[in-house]
Amino acid sequence: MSTLRIVTLTVFLTLALSAVAFAERPEVSADRQAFDVATMRYLLDGHVTVRFPERTITADHAQVNLVTMEVWAQDHIRLVEGDILFIGKTLYVKGSERTAYLSGGADFTRSALAIRSDEATFNWDTKIADFTGNVRLTREDTEEKCAHVRYNVVTGEILLTE
After folding, report:
1. pTM beyond cutoff 0.70
2. Neighbours of 112 (CB within 10 A)
3. Which DSSP string corresponds to the chain?
4. Pseudo-torsion of CA 95, 15, 38, 29, nearest 10°?
5. Mean pLDDT along residues 135-160
6. What's the Cα-to-Cα distance from 95 to each of 3, 31, 67, 113, 147, rounded to whole Å?
7. How far apart are CA 162 and CA 21, in angstroms?
8. Alpha carbons 36 and 16: distance in angstroms, whole number
9. Nearest alpha carbon to residue 158 among 119, 131, 123, 121
10. How far apart are alpha carbons 16 and 153 in whole angstroms?
11. What pLDDT digit, counting tens, does each position of 72-129 carry?
């Protein structure tokens, strides 16, 4: 029986590591880090950096699942992709949806534009950001309060305000 368990565990780990090898695997660094083989999850604390090929997440604390490419991060969140910068309190990245979810407050700034809200989502395939909950949209010197703002971060176009 124990030989069967060892073979099963070896096959499972080989398949899991193969899946990880072909995924958009991030580089991770932190003051303190551990890796849980059972869940294929990094546990990171203190000056956390999770670097994907096209975007970087920094935070005080994070967990990264290498199989599902999910990231959970808390406190002093910064999500950077090129000149795109989101700042927030809590972040969840769902790799399969290629979407980041910020909650507990989200700030986005770019030249003469600032958007602040309770929550935001950003899909890096479509480059569309949605801001909801107490949204404050500031363009040049004008501030507008909205329930929802949809913004294309590539074209700089505001697609929706309500």
Report:
1. yes
2. 10
3. -HHHHHHHHHHHHHHHHHHHHHS-PPEEE-SEEEEETTTTEEEEEEEEEEE-SS-EEEEEEEEEETTTTEEEEEEEEEEEETTEEEEEEEEEEEGGGTEEEEEEEEEEEETTEEEEESEEEEETTTTEEEEEEEEEEEETTEEEEEEEEEEETTT--EEEE-
4. -50
5. 93
6. 35, 24, 10, 28, 27
7. 43
8. 13
9. 131
10. 35
11. 999 999 999 888 899 999 999 999 999 999 999 999 988 789 999 999 999 999 999 9
Question: Rounded to whole angstroms, what are the CA distances from 110 to 51, 77, 84, 156, 162?
Answer: 22, 17, 8, 9, 21
Q: Which two tokens stand for residue 122?
A: 């950003």
The two structure tokens encoding residue 115: 């958007």
Which residue type does 37 have?
Answer: V
Report yes or no: 88 and 77 within 8 Å, Cβ to Cβ. Answer: yes
